[in-house]
Description:
Layout: E1 12-17, E2 19-22, E3 30-39, E4 41-42, E5 45-46, E6 54-63, E7 66-73, H1 77-85, H2 105-114, E8 127-131, E9 134-138, E10 143-147, E11 154-159, E12 168-169, E13 174-175, E14 181-187, E15 195-201, E16 219-225, E17 239-240, E18 244-249, E19 252-254, H3 256-265, E20 273-275, E21 281-287, E22 298-300, E23 304-314, E24 317-325, H4 330-333, H5 336-339, H6 343-349, E25 360-364, E26 371-373, E27 380-384, E28 396-401, E29 410-415, E30 420-425, E31 429-431, E32 435-438, E33 448-456, E34 464-469, E35 475-480, E36 490-495
Antiparallel strand pairs: 1-7, 2-35, 3-6, 3-36, 4-5, 6-7, 8-9, 9-10, 10-11, 12-14, 13-14, 14-15, 15-16, 17-18, 18-21, 19-20, 21-22, 23-24, 24-25, 25-26, 27-28, 28-29, 29-30, 31-33, 32-33, 33-34, 34-35
InterPro entries: Carotenoid_Oase
Family: Belongs to the carotenoid oxygenase family.
Cofactor: Fe(2+)
Amino acid sequence: MQAIIARNGLETPEPVKAEVKGSVPSWLQGTLLRNGPGLFSVGDSEYNHWFDGLSLIHSFTFSNGEVTYRSKYLKSETYKRNVKADRIVVSEFGTMIYPDPCKNIFSRAMTHFRNIIPDFTDNNLINIIRYGQDYYASSEVNYINQVDPSTLETVGRVNYRNHIALNLATAHPHYDKEGNTYNMGTAIIGLGRPKYIIFKVPGTTSDKDLKKPALRKVQQICSVPFRSTLYPSYFHSFGMTENYVVFVEQPFKLDIVKLATAYFRGVNWGSCLKFDEKDDTFFHVINIKTGKANSLRYHADALVVFHHINAYEDDGHVVFDIIAYKDSNLYNMFYLHNMKKETDNFIEANQEFSPPVFPFHSIDITWVTAQSTSGTFSGMELPGINYDFNARKYRYFYGSRLEWSPHPNKIAKVDIVTKTHVEWRQENCYPSEPVFVASPGAVEEDDGVILSSVVSSDPSISPFLLLLDAKTFEEIARASIPVPVHMDLHGLFIPDTGK
Length: 499
């Protein structure tokens, strides 16, 4: 696996037909979009961290039992600048870039000046999100890039700051049944005290004729002040019930002073994130309708969370499920000098790695009764559910199993009622985050299929799109792709409604 982990991906700009074994359900009509890092070197320059690679977007389109595949690099400003220079010229999370010494003094001085206040990359490599009826490649910065889900062409860049005062925003929003999108961001620089902001983009804001961005009608729901002005909490996702947003203000923090001076100190932005094991984790419960936070804050021991599974209200309680870690070592594992080690050396070097565990936290909305039961299930990440059950009481979630590597070699279905799970695996195969698609008219929560893009370190095994029966977790089909496919992070299924 280490031999292919940071290999540059290849574009397949025109759709290619997959070879299907088994039977793709005739009702499965639509496109699975996937996003992740795909280009790890430009010219003679290389990135330091797996999360720095330039975004490569994939699509798997299902139509009448057939599957077609295509992929294109996101044509961000970062991508275009790097390719034009034939070297990496834009800094990323784990790779700080300095001006070419061959450039003239004025050019170098301007580069240094621009880095007094960092203008982050627009290499949106984490997820595909929807605002209105527009789709965007996203990461966690103030820029997002609109993409055409049919052609994968990059439509244009949007800056959150032109519509709402944000410096950072998550790539994991929530959607309600009316098509509205809810998201969270961080306002570090601007008027007033630094704060976290929860906002809503109405589902009816798209304007394809005049090409006005969906964000033009963004609505701020509320804000939550930092508990420490110079050390905002890092957050990758958040929870949402019918009436509440649950925000975990964790002691995994961004050091603002270090961030502002990172360029001049010769360190990357990733080094500005620090975990304070002696600090508490705060849980904020915010009423979506009123925008008011509950008058009480809930505390727990120090933990790190990247992905929320689900949240819902039950008998006067807010219940939310998360994947938790005891520390922040996960990011360090993804430095490429780590990931390229031979398997035995990798395992030896990362013995202190904190595995993800699936706890639950139950918070009474009126009284401080935060409870935690951890260790129920270990080694699970990239969770997904039947999204029709988002913000509702649910029973199943699906995710990637992590063992010796941060890259999963299994996917699993977890029953949180019986505390049991079933797995799919194949030797030398590495499946992506599982995505659930419900059957038409489904009533049962697990009536549908699981989609996962699978790559292999075995050259005799072509990459394939795996389809599992979500109820039995048995393979019903695989669509082998006749071109290289790269590992990815997150994605979104867009159903073909026939409109």
